[in-house]
Backbone:
């Protein structure tokens, strides 16, 4: 009987300790600075992601090369990969970026028949 009680206690303790808590989901809210090339020319800009009152992500992509700001239409977060869809003057801009623990990012982007790679960093909020 004593062995049964000890076994039951050991099973109960193991069930209580369980697996460690999973990490909190990545929070895409913040400002991201980026550098890329378009047609061989270096370009820079920023993306600001906010969470609206409805809980949905929204924001704006602001290029530094004369293109007007582009509203962010949707944001999808899977682990530390963030996919942003924005309206680039009637065309879909898609940015897929992976954010490292230190805030640096690597990304791919596409709009129309153009696309490429980008690098940058998250400079504010969330993470």
Residues:
């Amino acid at each position: 009987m004593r062995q049964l009680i000890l076994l039951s206690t050991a099973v109960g303790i193991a069930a209580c300790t369980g697996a460690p808590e999973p990490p909190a989901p990545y929070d895409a809210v913040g400002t991201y600075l980026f550098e890329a090339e378009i047609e061989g020319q270096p370009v820079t800009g920023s993306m600001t992601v906010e969470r609206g009152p409805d809980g949905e992500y929204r924001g704006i992509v602001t290029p530094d090369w004369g293109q007007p700001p582009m509203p962010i239409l949707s944001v999808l977060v899977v682990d530390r990969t963030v996919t942003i869809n924005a309206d680039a003057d009637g065309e879909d801009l898609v940015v897929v970026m992976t954010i490292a623990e230190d805030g640096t990012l690597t990304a791919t982007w596409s709009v129309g028949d153009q696309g490429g790679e980008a690098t940058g960093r998250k400079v504010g909020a969330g993470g």
